[in-house]
Design a protein that fits this description.
Layout lengths: L1 H4 L5 H26 L3 H10 L1 H10 L3 H22 L4 H20 L5 H10 L7 H20 L1 H9 L1 H6 L4 H23 L4 H15 L3 H26 L3 H19 L5 H5 L1
Length: 276
Protein backbone atom coordinates (compact mmCIF):
# COMPACT_ATOMS: atom_id res chain seq x y z
CA UNK A 1 0.00 0.00 0.00
CA UNK A 2 3.01 2.27 0.02
CA UNK A 3 2.16 3.39 -3.52
CA UNK A 4 -1.08 4.81 -2.09
CA UNK A 5 0.22 6.29 1.15
CA UNK A 6 3.57 7.72 0.03
CA UNK A 7 2.09 10.73 -1.82
CA UNK A 8 -0.07 11.56 1.22
CA UNK A 9 2.98 12.73 3.16
CA UNK A 10 2.81 15.95 1.15
CA UNK A 11 0.21 18.52 2.21
CA UNK A 12 -0.27 19.80 -1.33
CA UNK A 13 -1.18 16.27 -2.48
CA UNK A 14 -3.80 15.95 0.27
CA UNK A 15 -5.30 19.31 -0.70
CA UNK A 16 -5.28 18.29 -4.35
CA UNK A 17 -7.06 15.00 -3.53
CA UNK A 18 -9.77 16.82 -1.59
CA UNK A 19 -10.23 19.35 -4.38
CA UNK A 20 -10.31 16.71 -7.13
CA UNK A 21 -12.85 14.61 -5.25
CA UNK A 22 -15.14 17.56 -4.54
CA UNK A 23 -14.95 18.85 -8.10
CA UNK A 24 -15.58 15.38 -9.52
CA UNK A 25 -18.76 15.03 -7.44
CA UNK A 26 -20.18 18.52 -8.06
CA UNK A 27 -19.45 18.59 -11.80
CA UNK A 28 -20.81 15.09 -12.34
CA UNK A 29 -24.10 15.69 -10.51
CA UNK A 30 -24.82 18.95 -12.31
CA UNK A 31 -23.47 17.38 -15.49
CA UNK A 32 -26.43 15.00 -15.46
CA UNK A 33 -28.68 17.95 -16.36
CA UNK A 34 -26.15 19.22 -18.90
CA UNK A 35 -26.23 15.84 -20.67
CA UNK A 36 -30.00 15.40 -20.44
CA UNK A 37 -30.75 18.89 -21.76
CA UNK A 38 -28.10 18.78 -24.50
CA UNK A 39 -26.22 21.75 -23.03
CA UNK A 40 -22.69 20.47 -23.59
CA UNK A 41 -21.80 23.24 -26.06
CA UNK A 42 -23.21 25.85 -23.69
CA UNK A 43 -21.10 24.51 -20.82
CA UNK A 44 -17.95 24.54 -22.94
CA UNK A 45 -18.64 28.05 -24.21
CA UNK A 46 -19.38 29.39 -20.74
CA UNK A 47 -16.16 27.89 -19.41
CA UNK A 48 -14.19 29.77 -22.06
CA UNK A 49 -16.07 33.05 -21.71
CA UNK A 50 -15.07 33.46 -18.05
CA UNK A 51 -11.44 33.93 -19.13
CA UNK A 52 -11.66 37.77 -19.19
CA UNK A 53 -12.97 37.74 -15.61
CA UNK A 54 -10.20 35.40 -14.47
CA UNK A 55 -7.49 37.42 -16.21
CA UNK A 56 -8.93 40.72 -14.96
CA UNK A 57 -8.86 39.44 -11.37
CA UNK A 58 -5.34 38.09 -11.91
CA UNK A 59 -4.02 41.39 -13.24
CA UNK A 60 -5.69 43.36 -10.43
CA UNK A 61 -4.48 41.02 -7.73
CA UNK A 62 -8.01 39.88 -6.80
CA UNK A 63 -8.99 36.28 -6.02
CA UNK A 64 -9.37 34.46 -9.33
CA UNK A 65 -12.59 32.84 -8.13
CA UNK A 66 -14.19 36.26 -7.66
CA UNK A 67 -13.46 37.38 -11.21
CA UNK A 68 -14.52 34.03 -12.63
CA UNK A 69 -17.74 34.01 -10.61
CA UNK A 70 -18.79 37.52 -11.59
CA UNK A 71 -17.95 36.98 -15.26
CA UNK A 72 -19.54 33.54 -15.30
CA UNK A 73 -22.86 34.70 -13.85
CA UNK A 74 -22.99 37.77 -16.09
CA UNK A 75 -22.20 35.67 -19.16
CA UNK A 76 -24.75 33.02 -18.23
CA UNK A 77 -27.45 35.65 -17.85
CA UNK A 78 -26.34 37.36 -21.05
CA UNK A 79 -26.41 34.16 -23.07
CA UNK A 80 -29.80 33.30 -21.62
CA UNK A 81 -31.24 36.69 -22.55
CA UNK A 82 -29.65 36.74 -25.99
CA UNK A 83 -30.87 33.28 -26.97
CA UNK A 84 -34.33 33.92 -25.58
CA UNK A 85 -35.03 37.27 -27.23
CA UNK A 86 -32.87 37.18 -30.34
CA UNK A 87 -33.71 35.86 -33.77
CA UNK A 88 -30.33 34.11 -33.76
CA UNK A 89 -30.23 30.39 -33.17
CA UNK A 90 -28.95 29.46 -29.72
CA UNK A 91 -25.74 27.79 -30.88
CA UNK A 92 -24.94 30.75 -33.13
CA UNK A 93 -25.38 33.29 -30.35
CA UNK A 94 -23.31 31.19 -27.96
CA UNK A 95 -20.59 30.74 -30.60
CA UNK A 96 -20.30 34.51 -31.14
CA UNK A 97 -19.95 35.23 -27.42
CA UNK A 98 -17.65 32.26 -26.93
CA UNK A 99 -15.15 33.40 -29.56
CA UNK A 100 -15.30 37.09 -28.70
CA UNK A 101 -14.92 36.83 -24.93
CA UNK A 102 -12.27 34.13 -25.09
CA UNK A 103 -10.24 36.24 -27.50
CA UNK A 104 -10.65 39.22 -25.15
CA UNK A 105 -9.31 37.15 -22.26
CA UNK A 106 -6.26 36.01 -24.24
CA UNK A 107 -5.63 39.60 -25.36
CA UNK A 108 -5.80 40.82 -21.74
CA UNK A 109 -3.46 38.07 -20.60
CA UNK A 110 -0.92 38.94 -23.29
CA UNK A 111 -0.42 42.24 -21.47
CA UNK A 112 1.18 40.36 -18.54
CA UNK A 113 4.78 39.18 -18.46
CA UNK A 114 4.41 35.42 -18.05
CA UNK A 115 1.88 34.95 -20.83
CA UNK A 116 2.63 31.34 -21.81
CA UNK A 117 2.88 29.94 -18.27
CA UNK A 118 -0.17 31.82 -17.00
CA UNK A 119 -2.29 30.84 -20.00
CA UNK A 120 -1.34 27.18 -19.47
CA UNK A 121 -2.50 27.35 -15.83
CA UNK A 122 -5.79 28.95 -16.80
CA UNK A 123 -6.45 26.54 -19.65
CA UNK A 124 -5.36 23.26 -18.05
CA UNK A 125 -5.64 23.92 -14.32
CA UNK A 126 -3.09 23.76 -11.53
CA UNK A 127 -4.41 21.02 -9.25
CA UNK A 128 -1.17 20.66 -7.32
CA UNK A 129 -1.26 24.39 -6.55
CA UNK A 130 -4.59 24.26 -4.67
CA UNK A 131 -4.36 26.24 -1.43
CA UNK A 132 -6.41 26.05 1.76
CA UNK A 133 -8.38 29.11 0.67
CA UNK A 134 -9.08 27.42 -2.67
CA UNK A 135 -10.45 24.42 -0.78
CA UNK A 136 -12.79 26.67 1.21
CA UNK A 137 -13.97 28.29 -2.01
CA UNK A 138 -14.60 24.89 -3.60
CA UNK A 139 -16.42 23.66 -0.48
CA UNK A 140 -18.68 26.73 -0.18
CA UNK A 141 -19.56 27.09 -3.85
CA UNK A 142 -19.90 23.33 -4.31
CA UNK A 143 -22.29 23.15 -1.35
CA UNK A 144 -24.39 25.94 -2.83
CA UNK A 145 -24.68 24.02 -6.11
CA UNK A 146 -25.53 20.69 -4.48
CA UNK A 147 -28.09 22.21 -2.10
CA UNK A 148 -29.77 24.06 -4.95
CA UNK A 149 -29.93 20.88 -7.04
CA UNK A 150 -31.41 19.07 -4.02
CA UNK A 151 -34.12 21.66 -3.36
CA UNK A 152 -35.05 22.14 -7.04
CA UNK A 153 -34.61 18.50 -8.07
CA UNK A 154 -38.24 17.93 -9.08
CA UNK A 155 -38.50 21.21 -10.97
CA UNK A 156 -35.27 20.61 -12.90
CA UNK A 157 -36.44 17.08 -13.62
CA UNK A 158 -39.71 18.27 -15.14
CA UNK A 159 -38.21 21.01 -17.32
CA UNK A 160 -35.51 18.60 -18.51
CA UNK A 161 -37.82 15.74 -19.51
CA UNK A 162 -41.20 17.37 -20.22
CA UNK A 163 -41.32 21.15 -20.90
CA UNK A 164 -45.01 20.86 -21.80
CA UNK A 165 -45.79 19.40 -18.38
CA UNK A 166 -43.76 22.21 -16.81
CA UNK A 167 -46.01 24.74 -18.54
CA UNK A 168 -49.12 22.82 -17.48
CA UNK A 169 -47.95 22.82 -13.86
CA UNK A 170 -47.18 26.53 -14.17
CA UNK A 171 -43.59 26.08 -13.13
CA UNK A 172 -41.44 29.22 -13.53
CA UNK A 173 -39.59 27.75 -16.51
CA UNK A 174 -37.65 30.92 -17.32
CA UNK A 175 -36.48 31.33 -13.73
CA UNK A 176 -35.46 27.67 -13.55
CA UNK A 177 -33.56 27.94 -16.83
CA UNK A 178 -31.60 30.95 -15.62
CA UNK A 179 -30.99 29.27 -12.28
CA UNK A 180 -29.52 26.25 -14.05
CA UNK A 181 -27.29 28.51 -16.15
CA UNK A 182 -26.04 30.25 -13.01
CA UNK A 183 -25.36 26.88 -11.34
CA UNK A 184 -23.28 25.87 -14.36
CA UNK A 185 -21.33 29.14 -14.05
CA UNK A 186 -20.69 28.54 -10.33
CA UNK A 187 -19.61 24.95 -10.97
CA UNK A 188 -17.15 26.14 -13.59
CA UNK A 189 -15.57 28.38 -10.95
CA UNK A 190 -15.41 25.38 -8.60
CA UNK A 191 -13.59 23.28 -11.20
CA UNK A 192 -11.34 26.02 -12.59
CA UNK A 193 -8.29 25.21 -10.45
CA UNK A 194 -8.55 21.48 -10.98
CA UNK A 195 -8.98 20.98 -14.73
CA UNK A 196 -8.79 24.50 -16.16
CA UNK A 197 -10.93 26.15 -18.79
CA UNK A 198 -10.03 23.98 -21.77
CA UNK A 199 -10.87 20.67 -20.06
CA UNK A 200 -13.92 21.84 -18.10
CA UNK A 201 -16.41 20.27 -20.48
CA UNK A 202 -15.01 16.80 -19.83
CA UNK A 203 -15.83 16.95 -16.12
CA UNK A 204 -19.37 18.08 -16.89
CA UNK A 205 -20.11 15.59 -19.63
CA UNK A 206 -17.91 12.48 -19.43
CA UNK A 207 -18.94 11.01 -16.02
CA UNK A 208 -22.61 11.79 -16.66
CA UNK A 209 -22.45 10.38 -20.18
CA UNK A 210 -20.81 7.23 -18.83
CA UNK A 211 -23.51 6.85 -16.18
CA UNK A 212 -26.25 7.39 -18.76
CA UNK A 213 -25.12 4.20 -20.52
CA UNK A 214 -25.58 2.22 -17.31
CA UNK A 215 -28.95 3.58 -16.14
CA UNK A 216 -31.92 5.65 -17.23
CA UNK A 217 -33.05 6.73 -13.74
CA UNK A 218 -31.85 10.23 -12.90
CA UNK A 219 -31.04 9.70 -9.18
CA UNK A 220 -29.03 6.57 -10.00
CA UNK A 221 -27.38 8.36 -12.91
CA UNK A 222 -26.30 11.20 -10.62
CA UNK A 223 -24.95 8.76 -8.04
CA UNK A 224 -22.94 6.73 -10.55
CA UNK A 225 -21.65 9.89 -12.24
CA UNK A 226 -20.54 11.30 -8.86
CA UNK A 227 -18.62 8.10 -8.08
CA UNK A 228 -16.96 8.14 -11.51
CA UNK A 229 -16.11 11.83 -11.17
CA UNK A 230 -14.59 11.41 -7.71
CA UNK A 231 -12.65 8.30 -8.74
CA UNK A 232 -11.36 10.06 -11.86
CA UNK A 233 -10.09 12.92 -9.73
CA UNK A 234 -8.24 10.67 -7.29
CA UNK A 235 -6.93 8.21 -9.90
CA UNK A 236 -5.92 11.06 -12.20
CA UNK A 237 -3.92 12.72 -9.43
CA UNK A 238 -2.05 9.50 -8.61
CA UNK A 239 -1.42 8.95 -12.32
CA UNK A 240 -0.05 12.48 -12.54
CA UNK A 241 2.19 11.89 -9.52
CA UNK A 242 3.72 8.62 -10.70
CA UNK A 243 3.92 9.30 -14.44
CA UNK A 244 4.95 12.94 -14.04
CA UNK A 245 2.26 14.33 -16.32
CA UNK A 246 -0.04 17.34 -15.93
CA UNK A 247 -2.69 16.69 -13.29
CA UNK A 248 -5.70 18.27 -15.05
CA UNK A 249 -5.31 16.28 -18.27
CA UNK A 250 -4.62 13.12 -16.22
CA UNK A 251 -7.97 13.47 -14.45
CA UNK A 252 -9.78 13.90 -17.76
CA UNK A 253 -7.95 10.94 -19.33
CA UNK A 254 -9.03 8.63 -16.52
CA UNK A 255 -12.66 9.76 -16.92
CA UNK A 256 -12.41 9.25 -20.69
CA UNK A 257 -10.92 5.76 -20.26
CA UNK A 258 -13.80 4.78 -17.98
CA UNK A 259 -16.26 6.05 -20.59
CA UNK A 260 -14.62 3.97 -23.34
CA UNK A 261 -14.66 0.81 -21.20
CA UNK A 262 -18.32 1.28 -20.24
CA UNK A 263 -19.29 2.16 -23.81
CA UNK A 264 -17.70 -1.05 -25.07
CA UNK A 265 -18.43 -3.55 -22.30
CA UNK A 266 -21.50 -2.35 -20.36
CA UNK A 267 -23.96 -5.25 -19.90
CA UNK A 268 -26.82 -5.12 -22.43
CA UNK A 269 -26.12 -1.53 -23.50
CA UNK A 270 -22.41 -1.82 -24.36
CA UNK A 271 -21.32 -1.74 -28.00
CA UNK A 272 -19.64 -5.16 -27.91
CA UNK A 273 -22.55 -6.68 -25.96
CA UNK A 274 -25.02 -5.50 -28.60
CA UNK A 275 -22.88 -6.95 -31.38
CA UNK A 276 -22.79 -10.41 -29.84
Amino acid sequence: MSWFTDPLQFDFIVRALLAATAVGIVCSILGAYVVLRGMAFFGDALAHTILPGVVGAYLLGWPLALGALLMGILTALGIGALTERSSLKEDTAIGVLFAGLFALGVAMLSASGNYTVDLAHFLFGNLLGVTSSDLWTIAILGSIVLLTVFFFYKEFLVISFDPVLATTLRLPATFLRYLLLILIAITIVVALQVVGIALMLAMFVTPAATASILTRRLPTLMGIAAVIGAFSGVAGLYTSYYLNIASGPAVVLVASLIFVLVFLFAPERGYIWQKL
